[in-house]
Structures are given as C-alpha cells and as structure tokens.
Amino acid sequence: xxxxxxxxxxxxxxxxxxTHVDSRMHNYERGRRIMTDEANAVITAAFEAGCTxxxxxxxxxxxxxxxxxxxxxxxSLITGGAKPFSMVQGLDESFSGAFFIGYHAxxxxxGVLSHSMTFGVRNMYINDIAIGEMGxxxxxxxxxxxxxxxxxxxxxxxxxANELIPEVTxxxxxxxxxxxxxxxxxxxxxxxxxxxxxxxALSNRSIVKPxxxxxxxxxxxxxxxxxxxxxxxxxPGTILEPDSTTVRFDAKDILxxxxxxxxxxxxxxxxxxx
Length: 274
Hints:
This protein starts with a strand and ends in a 6-residue tail after the last helix. With 274 residues, it is of the alpha/beta class. The chain has seven helices and twelve strands. Strand 8 (169-178) and strand 9 form a beta hairpin.
C-alpha cells in the first residue's frame, strides 16, 4: 500500500490559538513538535499495518513546520511553500488512500481555529456544495480515484468529514469549546488514538469511496470584505458577482479550480486593513 498524508496544524492536540500555529509566536516551537509527533504516530502505525510507501505533505502556512530530523526515517516529506497544489501537492492516482491529519472545520463553522485557507474567506463553494480545505482536498483526491481514509482534528472537523465522506475513519484529539478553547487529549494519549484509528482506517479501506468532483466545476469564494474580492477578481477568468463579495470562476476540472482558489486567496491577502 502506498499512502498519502497531508498534515495541517490547527487540528493537532493541545493547539488552540495563534501562539501555537504562527512561527513568529512563543508557543510555535512546542506546536510543531507536537505536530511532528502526531504525524509520526500515524506513519508508524501505517508501516506496521503493511504500508510500503508513505509520502507526507506539510500543509500548514509556509508548509515548513514538520521537523524532518524527527520524522520516521522511511518517510518522504514535501516541505516548503509556493506549491502549485498546496495541501495536496504530490497526490496522484498511484496512492491507495489519503490521510488528512491535524485538520480543522471550515470558515463560518464552529471549531478550533476554523477557517478556509485564509482568514479572509467566509465561504467557498464547488457548484452548490459548501466546502473548506478538507472538502476541496478530498475532491482533488477523488479526481485521482483516491479515497480519504482518515481525518484527525477536533470534533467539529470530524462532523465535517463524516458529512463529506461516508465510512471515513475519524480521530478526535480535542473537543471545541470556543474557537480558541478546547478540551484536549494529551499528546501521548492522542498518539495512541491516532495509531489505533490508522489501523482501523487501513482495515476498512475497501468500503470508503473517493469523493468524485463534478465535471466543469463552478468555484465561488465569498470574501470577508469588498477589497479582498476586488483583488481576487483581478485573476483572468473570474467574475465579481454584483453587489457582493463573492468571486466566481468556471473551471474545466477540479485541478484548475483548486489552483484558481490558491491564486484568488493569495491575491485577496494583498488588501491592507486600516
């Protein structure tokens, strides 16, 4: 079995606010160590369950958070920013399944550090389906025929995963109380849960179906303010919908939609707040 693992940070045990996930802040080094340990718990259990090839993609912020010197030595790691496919860089049809570790709920939903790509996005849609990072990434996996076998994060991320992907295995390492407060497992206990759920996900892989994206998808992104929408709509092929902060892009496939989303969200971040 060849397994793909995308690792975000907001859904890792014990991490609840910006101080844990922002490299400029005082709790970040603690946060990235716990993130690396949780990735290792999944990797080790997957190898023990018979996986022969595991590719890990660092999927948070500048995407250079995982400490490669501490990762399982038989793992390959994609690290660094400016990836053409961001959180799903390197994913293709050669994989037996995908794991989304440390994930969070989408913007406009309850959940620890909930958001969708950037904090300037209120909602994202593929056709009429509201999605966040998890849903978009699952659609890309589905484009390649790869099922998402497991999602870990808080209880709200698990709810979102179950709504999107029937029979997916979830690992709940913390329960959201507010957007910056959680009742969390300790990292050691979370690692044990992740290992058990990894084994369960691999055992159940035959019953999980890929999330197949629509053909010629319509991407719509609702931004927090008009200035962000204006910047996003400078990308060729986009339409700023009248009297709204929503930008539309008609894509030829989900891969084009995904790359358009990356460009639009990056452009929106150029807005200066006063």
